């Protein structure tokens, strides 16, 4: 018997435990069990079978423990490759999480067997169907209609019978005559991605690259061709034709025998993007969107694994697509927040995974964006990664004019109406736009649960002196709280900046804006798009279709309206309150705001008529606003990087956020506090420990949330500290009703 070390797939431990099991020597010698094999092992007192991965083939274990034997090898899951195991180990190091949770990212969930149903398929050629019908050999109209239908491909018997209005027996008759065959297969679900919206899609054929594109293409191709690890930021203004560049690079990569992966934010995985890819690459593409069933996910995964396709396009988790000869990974809109996984450990960033995979495989990673993350741009300036820029719009459309409306002035001159939503300028422009039959998009930032105190006369927000973060207002106790360091103060009665004594506490939501629009334009159709209206099935697609068709003249929505959609008839975009974005309690608030303003500007004037953007704000001098109005990324970056350095935020530091969630507020706080205390006892000078502080959203689903923030100069130092703290002080041991999660920012 041999001793092997395995990782349990369903482990809920916060750190790695390698269990030792016995296995027959012959199983290892014959290669039936290798490193990476999935096996079943008896576990716990009840010896229930659990899935595990073999990690170590020669394990020295404590002889005093009675070991159990592995009970079988998985027949469905192929063993992990050495590269995949390396990736899992790297991830576990990067995110301080168990190897088993990383392995779970690499393999698709086991496919449910599903239901088998009958499909009818044509056994004769389409020409023979025509002949049978025209020659009169086939007289029954129902028979003819069925065969006509099957010319397009196989159909589910019950569906087609219902559509034509016949019995299922008719199919048996046709089968007996040898015209069709009936086969059993797993039921394929139809997906909303094929909804009405996709009917209005226009895709384009290959463009000849313009000079700028061609230069970028040549540069990138030289990197890809080398088959060595490389990263490149592709910084291209909106409309500079990045998609065409991607398509041609992918095409060339595939032509030379490589595989390529395009990652897009979930929200842009639209039928439009899919259509471009299907149009160019046909069946050589796997589309991995989040609405796939486990079965479909498995089918795609296997196609990729078996080399049946060499291109995949998908959202965040598609970064794990198991291409053998991957040579190119593109992250489109690399700044998008959806590349960060927040739901389960490991809370990874797709860019970091892409980087890790590319290092293992010797592939090139391209980060595309008009507004790259400050962290990415910093790496480019630092010459750590390659840098390319596209400064011109490919379709020659001019960038829209951006006008800033000073809400403070509007208020003082009585310009803003009683609702406090629309300035005179915005109202005038909306009215003209409406009269001219054009469409308008309005962006509203919903603050969710957190409210801030905004001085009504000068518009300044109350900030934490220590963190420079806006503090959140809590009605209970009339206090302000900093969600970063935990500091709290009574809400001021007088504004420290201007002496004013009136404060606005409420955030303006999408519903309020839509209601107000309806009041001003009673005959207009208004589409409201936020998490409330899009959570219904097909909601997102339907609303987009309604707006694309021109049926609605206004679209009001949150973040999700700013992205990727191409509506040529939109000539006006408005940002109702820029301050609410800038004042988010997050060190990336300015970055997010700048990105959003730029994206909104990208929405307006995509057609022949030039567009216009109106930004309403109190803090009109804020650099996120002024830089966006000048379409000037550098201006934004120069200001932002100074703040990041001064306050020791990424890219100058690395941050770890430990969240605690529990139903009992005091118990949750108690555990967070105890963990903090134990970590402080370690007296590690290179790690700063902040908190515990209430989370920016203090309560979700009846669970109270507290956060502890660690800051250090590198991720490496943070994870080393966490390892030490969990070994010596047991800080992460499972503590009953309080859940913990760890995420990282900065390298
Ligand atoms: P980005 O992704 O950089 O914002 P897109 O890829 O959406 O830009 O391109 C904007 C528009 O420019 C698209 O309508 C596209 O068809 C067009 N386009 C791209 N490349 C060219 C080219 N070389 N010549 C003409 N038009 C182009
Ligand atoms: Zn603070």
Mean pLDDT: 87
Helix percentage range: 25-40%
Low-pLDDT residue spans? 190-200
- Total number of helices: 24
Structural class of the secondary structure composition? alpha/beta
Computed over alpha carbons, the radius of gyration is: 29 Å
| Percent in strands | 15-25%
Major beta sheet, specifics? Answer: 7 strands, parallel
| Shape descriptor | globular
The hetero molecules present are: adenosine-5'-diphosphate, zinc ion
Distance from N terminus to C terminus (CA atoms, Å) equals 44 Å
- Total strands: 30
In the sheet with the most strands, the strands line up as 11-12-10-13-14-9-15
Report on the architecture of this protein:
With 747 residues, the protein is α/β, with parallel strands linked by helices. The chain is built from 24 helices and 30 strands. The strands form 7 sheets. It has a 7-stranded parallel sheet, sandwiched between helices. Helix 2 crosses helix 3, helix 2 packs antiparallel against helix 12 and helix 20 packs parallel to helix 21. The radius of gyration is 29 Å and the shape is globular. The two termini are 44 Å apart. Adenosine-5'-diphosphate binds next to helix 9.
Annotate the secondary structure layout.
Elements: E1 2-8, E2 19-23, H1 25-29, E3 38-43, E4 48-56, E5 72-73, H2 82-95, H3 99-106, E6 116-122, H4 126-134, H5 141-150, E7 155-156, H6 157-164, H7 169-176, E8 180-186, H8 211-226, E9 230-236, H9 242-255, E10 259-263, H10 271-281, E11 285-288, H11 294-305, E12 311-314, E13 326-332, H12 350-361, E14 364-369, H13 374-381, E15 386-390, E16 401-406, H14 407-412, H15 424-435, E17 439-443, E18 454-455, E19 472-474, E20 479-481, E21 488-490, E22 503-504, H16 510-520, E23 526-529, H17 531-534, H18 539-548, E24 554-557, E25 570-575, H19 578-582, H20 589-603, E26 612-617, H21 623-629, H22 633-646, E27 654-662, H23 665-681, E28 688-700, E29 703-712, H24 715-728, E30 739-745
Parallel strand pairs: 9-14, 9-15, 10-12, 10-13, 11-12, 13-14, 16-26, 17-24, 17-25, 23-24, 25-26
Antiparallel strand pairs: 1-2, 1-4, 3-4, 3-5, 6-7, 6-8, 18-22, 19-20, 20-21, 27-29, 27-30, 28-29
Helix pairs in contact: 2-3, 2-12, 8-9, 20-21, 21-22
Bound molecules: adenosine-5'-diphosphate (ADP) and zinc ion.
The site of zinc ion has 8 residues, from loops.
């Amino acid at each position: 018997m041999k001793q092997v070390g395995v990782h349990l797939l369903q482990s809920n431990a916060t750190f790695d435990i390698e269990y030792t099991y016995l296995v027959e020597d012959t199983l290892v010698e014959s290669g039936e069990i290798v490193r990476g094999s999935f096996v079943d092992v008896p576990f716990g007192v009840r010896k229930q079978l659990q899935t595990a991965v073999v990690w170590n083939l020669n394990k020295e274990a404590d002889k005093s423990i009675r070991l159990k034997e592995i009970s079988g090898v998985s027949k469905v899951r192929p063993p992990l490759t050495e590269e995949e195991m390396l990736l899992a180990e790297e991830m576990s190091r990067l995110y301080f999480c168990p190897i088993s949770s990383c392995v779970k990212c690499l393999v698709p969930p086991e496919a449910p067997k599903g239901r088998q149903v009958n499909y009818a398929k044509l056994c004769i050629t389409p020409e023979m169907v025509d002949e049978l019908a025209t020659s009169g050999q086939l007289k029954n109209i129902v028979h003819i209609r069925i065969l006509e239908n099957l010319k397009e491909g196989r159909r589910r018997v019950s569906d087609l019978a219902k559509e034509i209005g016949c019995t299922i027996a008719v199919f048996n008759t046709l089968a007996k005559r040898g015209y069709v065959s009936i086969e059993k297969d797993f039921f394929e679900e139809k997906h909303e991605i094929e909804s009405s919206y996709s009917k209005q899609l226009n895709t384009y054929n290959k463009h000849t690259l313009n000079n700028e594109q061609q230069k970028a293409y040549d540069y990138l191709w030289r990197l890809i061709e080398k088959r060595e690890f490389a990263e490149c930021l592709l910084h291209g203004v909106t409309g500079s034709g990045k998609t065409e560049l991607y398509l041609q690079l992918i095409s060339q990569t595939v032509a030379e025998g490589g595989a390529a992966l395009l990652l897009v934010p979930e929200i842009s995985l639209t039928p439009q993007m899919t259509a471009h890819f299907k149009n160019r690459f046909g069946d050589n593409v796997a589309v991995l969107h989040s609405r796939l069933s486990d079965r479909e996910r498995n089918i795609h995964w296997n196609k990729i694994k078996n080399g049946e396709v060499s291109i995949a396009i998908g959202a965040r988790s598609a970064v794990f697509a198991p291409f053998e000869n991957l040579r190119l990974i593109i992250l489109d809109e690399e700044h998008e927040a959806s590349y960060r996984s927040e739901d389960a450990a490991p809370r990874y960033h797709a860019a970091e995974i892409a980087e890790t995979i590319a290092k293992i495989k010797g592939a090139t990673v391209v980060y595309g964006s008009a507004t790259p993350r400050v962290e990415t741009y910093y790496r480019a300036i630092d010459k750590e990664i390659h840098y390319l820029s596209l400064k011109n719009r490919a379709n020659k459309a001019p960038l829209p004019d951006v006008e800033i409306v000073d809400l403070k002035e509007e208020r003082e001159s009585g310009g803003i109406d009683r609702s406090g939503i629309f300035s005179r300028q915005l109202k005038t422009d909306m009215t003209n736009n409406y009269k001219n039959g054009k469409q308008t998009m309005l962006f509203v930032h919903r603050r969710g649960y957190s409210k801030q105190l905004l001085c009504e006369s000068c518009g300044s927000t109350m900030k934490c002196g220590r963190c420079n973060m806006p503090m959140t207002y809590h009605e209970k106790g009339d206090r302000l709280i900093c969600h970063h360091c935990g500091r709290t103060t009574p809400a001021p009665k007088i504004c420290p900046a201007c002496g004013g004594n009136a404060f606005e506490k409420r955030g303006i939501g999408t519903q309020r804006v839509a209601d107000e629009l309806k009041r001003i334009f009673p005959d207009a159709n208004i589409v409201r798009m936020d998490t409330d209206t899009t959570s219904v099935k097909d909601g997102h697609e339907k609303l987009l279709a309604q707006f694309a068709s021109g049926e609605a003249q206004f679209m009001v929505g949150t973040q999700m309206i700013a992205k990727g959609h191409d509506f040529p008839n939109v000539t006006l975009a408005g940002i109702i309150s820029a301050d609410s974005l800038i004042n988010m309690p997050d060190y990336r608030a300015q970055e997010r705001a700048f990105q959003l303003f730029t994206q909104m500007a990208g929405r307006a004037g995509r057609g022949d008529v030039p567009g216009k953007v109106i930004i309403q704000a109190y803090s009109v001098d804020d650099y996120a606003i002024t830089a966006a109005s000048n379409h000037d990324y550098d201006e934004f970056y120069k200001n932002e990087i100074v703040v990041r350095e001064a306050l020791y935020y990424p890219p100058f530091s690395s941050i770890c956020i430990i969240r605690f969630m529990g139903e009992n507020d005091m118990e949750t706080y108690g555990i967070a506090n105890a963990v903090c205390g134990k970590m402080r006892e370690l007296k590690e000078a290179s790690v700063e420990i902040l908190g515990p502080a209430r989370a920016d959203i203090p309560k979700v689903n009846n669970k109270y949330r507290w956060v502890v923030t660690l800051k250090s100069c590198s991720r490496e130092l943070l994870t080393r500290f966490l390892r030490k703290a969990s070994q010596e002080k047991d800080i992460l041991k499972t503590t009953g009703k309080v859940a913990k999660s760890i995420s990282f920012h900065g390298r």
